[in-house]
């Protein structure tokens, strides 16, 4: 069986032309796959029954299957997604965002209009018992959220071997295809009945794997998500551990998500200890590559910084970070390290995190602390690993399929 989900419009056109069909049939199939997000060929009623039967002989849509879901007290959901060959990855749904403003969400950070007048959000109106026009509400507003962020995996496992990350323990099993990457999004959107155009969805490529070591499939998935599913690239952020040649290539793309670089240390000596890949590409080389990305005044590069107690969380490190990022249009996301079994780091003290953040902010570098999402269900940053189940009451784990 060949997968339909993941094919570009030219690829679908080629397929249907080979079956003797007119090009508009390819457009109908494209719309069914990506706009309507159907999950069986049978339900594509815009196509004649005969063509559906013909296609089904050796094709299936093959959306990743959600085989298990864990629901956190904070609303975060973590899914185990099974691919056609049985390999699994994890995908995370975070209603109301990822705790930092990673994408261009500035407009909903305050109830201010461009003309300076205060507006009241529909939620407030509703809370005050005032009439609300719900015609343009999607599933998210209905559930009381302003937006949601989906965290997607790009590989089964990861080859990069960062010492603090649970995914690293898996090693690399294989790359995901473009269809498997974008398919995680389609499956999650379907579960929550999201209406693109009404609901505000952000995507972060921050799940399992290193997207820039699966560059072609990652970039093809971005095109499917933008042109097919309809999520603008400005609402996506890709996080990389720092693959210099791929960052340079990324800088030349015309459609491009926002970039987040996992800096994680303030000098090469510390970075090499916690991210051995630093032996290959030094911090300065990565920053040089990042500087080649064309940026408008509205664009930022995000630098992620996992704080490890006593390793990279002291004032001296904060000052080194300031020196490194001087002159760049940058913001920093501090991520308090999330523990995992078999990883021998400790969390920083709240005081150290506070001093670190204040040092950066006082010196003009916007710095946020990423709120950990779904830590109780092992869905937080660096905790994704197919086989590990959290120690918590059994009722939070819902088995969807055997
Ligand atoms: N491979 C990519 C994207 C996935 S990891 C990358 O490394 O950037 C996403 C983010 O989670 C990275 O910034 C990474 O440094 C961070 N991370 C990994 N393990 C973590 C942990 N145990 N606690 C907190 N953050 C972690
Ligand atoms: Fe891979 Fe990112 Fe984890 Fe490093 S932090 S091992 S690059 S997933």
Q: Describe it for me?
A:
The chain contains 12 helices and 15 strands. It folds into 2 domains: 2-60, DNA polymerase, domain 1, CATH 1.10.150; 65-377, TIM Barrel (Alpha-Beta Barrel), CATH 3.20.20.70. It has an 11-stranded mixed sheet with strand order 14-13-12-11-10-9-6-5-4-3-15, with helices on one face. A two-stranded parallel ribbon has the order 1-2. Strands 7-8 form a two-stranded antiparallel ribbon. The chain has helices at 9-18, 23-35, 49-58, 122-127, 139-142, 178-191, 215-229, 244-250, 268-274, 283-291, 315-325, 350-362, and strands at 2-3, 59-60, 65-71, 77-82, 88-95, 148-151, 155-157, 172-175, 201-205, 236-240, 258-262, 301-307, 330-336, 367-369, 397-399. Helix 1 packs across helix 2 (23-35), helix 2 (23-35) packs across helix 7 (215-229) and helix 8 runs parallel beside helix 10 (283-291). The model is unreliable at 104-120 and 388-402 (pLDDT under 50). Bound molecules: S-adenosyl-L-homocysteine and iron/sulfur cluster. Residues 164-165, 206, 210, 239-241, 262, 264, 304, 306, 335, 337-338, 340, 381-382 line the site of S-adenosyl-L-homocysteine (SAH).
Number of strands: 15
Give the radius of gyration. Answer: 22 Å
Number of domains: 2
Spatial strand arrangement across the major sheet: 14-13-12-11-10-9-6-5-4-3-15
| Associated small molecules | S-adenosyl-L-homocysteine, iron/sulfur cluster
Provide the CATH topology of the largest domain.
TIM Barrel
CATH class of the largest domain: Alpha Beta
Structural class, please? alpha/beta
**DSSP summary: helix tally:** 12
Q: Rough shape?
A: globular
Architecture of the largest domain in CATH? Alpha-Beta Barrel
Helix content: 25-40%
Mean pLDDT over the full residue set: 88
CATH homology-level superfamily of the largest domain: Aldolase class I
User: Mind summarizing the main beta sheet?
Assistant: 11 strands, mixed
C-alpha termini separation: 22 Å
The fraction of residues assigned to DSSP E strands is 15-25%
């Amino acid at each position: 069986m060949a997968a339909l989900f993941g094919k570009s419009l030219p690829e679908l056109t080629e397929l249907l032309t080979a079956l003797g069909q007119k090009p508009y049939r390819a457009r109908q199939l494209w719309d069914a796959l990506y706009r309507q997000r159907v999950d069986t060929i049978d339900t594509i009623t815009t196509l004649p029954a005969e063509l559906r039967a013909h296609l089904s002989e050796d094709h299936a849509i093959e959306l990743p299957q959600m085989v298990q879901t864990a629901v956190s007290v904070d609303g975060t959901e973590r899914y185990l997604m099974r691919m056609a060959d049985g390999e699994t990855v994890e995908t995370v749904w975070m209603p109301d965002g990822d705790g930092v403003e990673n994408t261009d969400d500035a407009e909903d950070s305050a109830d201010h209009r461009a003309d300076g007048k205060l507006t009241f959000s529909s939620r407030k109106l509703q809370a005050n018992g005032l009439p609300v026009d719900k015609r343009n509400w999607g599933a998210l507003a209905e559930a009381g959220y302003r937006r949601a962020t989906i965290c997607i995996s790009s590989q089964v496992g990861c080859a990069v071997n960062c010492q603090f990350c649970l995914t690293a323990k898996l090693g690399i099993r294989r790359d995901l295809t473009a269809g498997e990457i974008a398919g995680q999004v389609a499956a999650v959107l379907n579960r929550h009945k999201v209406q693109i155009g009404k609901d505000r969805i952000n995507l972060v490529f921050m799940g399992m794997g290193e997207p820039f070591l699966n560059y072609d499939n990652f970039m093809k998935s971005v095109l499917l998500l933008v042109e097919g599913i309809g999520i603008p690239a400005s609402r996506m952020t890709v996080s990389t551990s720092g693959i210099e040649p791929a960052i340079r290539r990324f800088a030349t793309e015309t459609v491009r998500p926002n970039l987040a670089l996992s800096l994680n240390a303030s000098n090469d000596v510390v970075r090499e200890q916690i991210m051995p890949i630093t032996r290959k590409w030094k911090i300065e080389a990565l920053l040089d590559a990042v500087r080649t990305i064309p940026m408008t005044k509205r664009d930022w590069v995000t630098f992620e910084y996992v704080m490890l107690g006593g390793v990279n969380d002291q004032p001296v490190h904060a000052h080194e970070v300031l020196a490194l990022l001087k002159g760049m249009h940058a913001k920093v996301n501090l991520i308090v390290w999330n523990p995992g079994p078999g990883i021998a780091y400790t969390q920083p003290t709240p005081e150290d995190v506070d001093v670190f953040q204040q040092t950066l902010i006082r010196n003009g570098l916007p710095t946020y602390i990423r709120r950990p999402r779904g830590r109780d269900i092992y869905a937080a940053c660096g905790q994704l690993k197919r086989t590990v189940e959290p120690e918590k009451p059994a009722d939070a784990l819902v088995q969807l399929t055997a």
